[in-house]
From TrEMBL:
Residues 332-361 have a biased composition (Low complexity). This is TQXA domain-containing protein. The lineage of its organism: Bacteria, Bacillati, Actinomycetota, Actinomycetes, Micromonosporales. The keyword Membrane applies. Keywords: Membrane, Signal, Transmembrane, Transmembrane helix. Residues 1-32 form the signal peptide. Residues 313-331 have a biased composition (Pro residues). Residues 306-367 are annotated as: Disordered.
Length: 403
């Protein structure tokens, strides 16, 4: 058991631990913002039956209701059931553990609903009848995109339409297959879009007329607009630009000294390509990826400082030279170590050279004679004698002490 002193020390230790915990709590960063949530819905009248991995599958398009907005959403987890009318939370690509999301991002960028519908059909070499209802037309575009997404996320292959009555009618099925083929053939890896917008670095420097940068923009998918004040934003080749994509780069330039500022803006903070997972157990229900964008406008700023280019000093002309006539070289009869009296009387006979000096003279003008050398030698001999005598006395004392 603890004595009184032990109890006192225990109370002090406990108070120290509690105080430290409170201090750490006060110093910790603020809690992260609540994740964006959305409710999964099935889109009416979008049912199709497709031959996926040699097996007929019937499915419908999905959408996610985020706040007051409803955006298309695609499945990236083919073998798991969707949690209809349940809330999903925004996550990251790493959290989803779904493969090939870089290529899925390309599919979303060039597929429905982000690409122009007519341009997508033309690029895929697909045609749809003019009398096809808007809902069915969107359904064809949606599933051409969705089957391409499944190809990368789950390895699903869309087969050519067989002569089976349960499959979607040939005019729609053929267009879906052509869009699918176009998207999976051309897909390349794209970066994960961000919920926030940033420019790195925040500032840079350059001389007037040169390029400052590069500046890298990270943010939502799609075009990110650049508004420049005091100069121009250009690409790597020096061509003016007004927008970039996520992970895109630009430079700032200005003809004279001064500052250039740039503001990047994106219309949506929750962009297509962001994943949504079922909270609590992400593997229990289907994983989803946004096809459209939602949220509010976001901005980021950066600036560059341009200094005047250094002016080149012109070489002086012969008339501007500070010494127009060369300095005459000394004649052999002139001595560089002449005394002041000699320099004052150039007609006087040249004196004999002074004896050379040595560094031990301390820089004195007096020559080093033999007397100081003799004194130094005598002092050295005396010191050696004293040292020898001292050693002898010490040895005698040691012998006397140990005897």
């Amino acid at each position: 058991m603890f004595g009184q002193r032990g109890l006192r020390w225990a109370r002090v230790a406990a108070a120290t631990v509690v105080g430290s915990a409170l201090a750490l709590g006060a110093a910790s960063p603020a809690a992260a913002e609540e994740p964006v949530t959305g409710k999964a819905k099935q889109v009416p009248r979008t049912e199709v039956t497709l031959q996926l991995n040699s097996k007929p599958e019937t499915t419908s398009a999905l959408e996610l209701k985020i706040g007051e907005q409803t955006v298309p959403v695609f499945c990236i987890d083919f073998h798991t059931p969707v949690a209809l009318n349940k809330n999903y939370e925004e996550g990251t690509w790493d959290e989803s553990q779904v493969k090939n999301l870089g290529k899925v991002q390309w599919v979303l960028t060039h597929g429905y609903p982000n690409a122009d519908a007519d341009a997508l059909l033309a690029a895929a070499g697909a045609e749809l009848p003019a009398d096809l209802s808007p809902v069915r037309r969107q359904t064809v575009l949606y599933f051409g995109t969705q089957t391409a997404v499944w190809h990368f996320s789950d390895g699903i292959r869309l087969a050519n339409r067989a002569n089976r009555p349960e499959l979607t009618r040939p005019i729609e099925y053929t267009a879906i297959k052509k869009i699918y083929d176009y998207l999976i053939t051309n897909a390349t890896d794209q970066p994960e879009p961000k919920a926030e917008l940033s420019i790195d670095p925040k500032d840079a420097e350059a001389t007037a007329g040169a390029k400052a940068g590069p500046f890298t923009v990270r943010g939502p998918a799609g075009d990110i607009t650049l508004a420049v004040d005091g100069g121009t934003a250009v690409d790597a080749e020096g061509k003016p630009v007004t927008s970039v994509a996520n992970e895109g780069q630009f430079w700032l330039t200005r003809d004279d000294a001064g500052k250039v500022s740039v503001t990047a803006s994106a219309d949506e903070s929750v962009s297509f390509g962001r994943v949504f997972l079922f909270p609590g157990d992400k593997n229990k229900h289907q994983k989803l990826i946004l096809g459209g964008s939602a949220g509010s406008k976001i901005t980021a700023k950066a600036e560059a400082t341009f200094t005047a280019a250094p002016s080149e000093s012109p070489s002086p002309t012969p008339s501007e030279s500070p010494s127009e006539s060369p300095v005459p070289s000394p004649t052999p009869s002139e001595s560089t170590s002449a005394s002041p009296s000699e320099s004052a009387s150039p007609s006087a006979p040249v004196a004999s050279p002074a004896p050379s000096t040595s560094p031990v003279s301390g820089g004195s003008d007096l020559p080093l004679t033999g007397s100081p050398i003799a004194v130094a030698a005598s002092a050295g001999v005396l010191l050696l004698a004293v040292g020898g005598l001292t050693v002898l006395l010490l040895r005698r004392r040691k012998l006397r002490f140990t005897a």
